[in-house]
Fold this protein.
Amino acid sequence: RSDWMIADLVPALGDKRIILASASPRRKEIFAILGLTPEVVPSTFEENLSKEGKHAWQYVEETAAGKAKQVHASLHKPADFVIGADTVVVMEGRILEKPRDAEHAFEMLSSLRGATHQVYSGVCIIDAKGNVTQFHGSTSVTFDDVPAEALRAYIASGEPMDKAGGYGIQSTGGS
């Protein structure tokens, strides 16, 4: 079926060993919402793939695959599924990942003010037989013209530092 929703698959996944190749609390929260409790095995994959000549969806799929493959190869006991994911923000064709420091976060967030940008997430799933499935999704987000002092206060909270583009739509950055 092509019209399945992830919720349709959840009952079949309940007794499966699922490894989340990420330390992201947001990704873990998504599984919890679905009633699943994956084992968390943070990937040590270096997120430094070249962006040259790649569309953002290719970049996030490749990075997600790198994370999932690294964790899959490190397992001593096989898993039913290893899942890796990556998200980036794209503004005017430029891929924005996590900010390096507070000033970089301010530059990123300032570039998003009063404009629409795209957010791309890539996912890679490796099953117990080693079959690899990759896919991505995207959405457009429009930022208000947030005053500089509000951006600085948000950055001072520390929240932007581990998020692509320097914000999380599902947290304070989305309000």
The radius of gyration is 17 Å. The mean pLDDT is 89.
